[in-house]
Automatic annotation (TrEMBL):
Family according to the record: Belongs to the MIP/aquaporin (TC 1.A.8) family.
Compartments, record wording: Membrane
Source domain of life: Bacteria
Chief localisation class: membrane
Keyword terms of this UniProt record: Membrane, Transmembrane, Transmembrane helix, Transport
The protein's name in its UniProt record: Aquaporin family protein
Membrane-related topology note: Multi-pass membrane protein
Residues that span the membrane, as ranges: 6-32, 39-59, 86-108, 136-156, 168-191, 218-240
Length: 241
């Protein structure tokens, strides 16, 4: 895979991931959305389908990492670091692009946030926030949840037929649904630094009425936690398999 293919694949795949993921949250929480109050299960499946669509799209070009934690875990496993910056750059650009596309899809609903009696914070559509703000607990949650994602991804690579058939992507998509349902309650399960940081930057820049804070004091946790989780996954995989 060339650097150009990797970059383009990760941009497109991550943009699709965020479009679906942020889109389902917007659908569930924004006023005047037909899916308002559809609930957490809908959000979990929306993110899972976003992984599926993004990874299948990106796979022929880049392998479909879509996540710096996955890229880091693979690099630690394989010892190949040369293309890590290209992957991460593509993922960050794609995450910003996907967040902008979500904003465009729900533009009318975001503009309706100007109605003072129905104004609501909008950061949760773009990025994660903890249910209980406890930095140590929040960080540990993100580390564990990311290991729950990246370690199985590395293990799936052992079964060559799964990867070649595309079945591995389908399995990972449902794995993300499971993580959301089982481990997403405390922090909203970022499990992906690009998925959180890119849209958070977008939220800070977009002209959304009454959008509220972008909560930069918390922003390091959904970046550092998943990176630690990805690194631990690579180390565990190398030691155990």
């Amino acid at each position: 895979m060339s650097n150009g293919d990797i970059f383009v694949g990760e941009v497109i795949g991550t943009a699709i991931l965020i479009l679906f993921g942020a889109g389902v949250v917007a659908a569930v929480v924004l006023n005047y959305s037909k899916a308002k109050d559809a609930g957490w299960v809908v959000i979990a499946f929306g993110w899972g389908f976003g992984v599926m669509a993004g990874a299948y799209t990106a796979a022929p070009l880049s392998g479909g990492h879509l996540n710096p934690a996955v890229t880091l875990g693979i690099a630690i496993d394989t010892g190949d670091w040369d293309k890590v910056p290209i992957y991460v750059a593509g993922q960050m650009v794609g995450a910003v692009l996907g967040a902008v596309l979500c904003w465009l899809v729900y533009f009318a609903q975001f503009q309706a946030n100007a109605e003072e009696d129905k104004a609501q914070p909008t950061l949760g559509i773009f990025s994660t926030a903890p249910a209980i703000r406890n930095p140590v607990a929040n960080l540990i949650t993100e580390i564990i949840a990311t290991v729950g994602l990246v370690l199985p991804i590395l293990a799936f690579g052992l079964t060559k037929g799964l990867g070649e058939s595309g079945t591995a992507i389908l399995i990972v998509s449902f794995l993300v649904v499971g993580i959301g349902l089982s481990l997403g309650g405390p922090t909203g399960y970022a499990i992906n630094p690009a998925r959180d940081l890119g849209p958070r930057i977008t939220h800070a820049l977009l002209p959304i009425p009454n959008k509220g804070t972008s909560d930069w004091s918390y922003a390091w946790i959904p970046v550092v936690g998943p990176l630690i989780g990805g690194a631990l996954s690579g180390l565990i995989f190398n030691a155990a398999f």
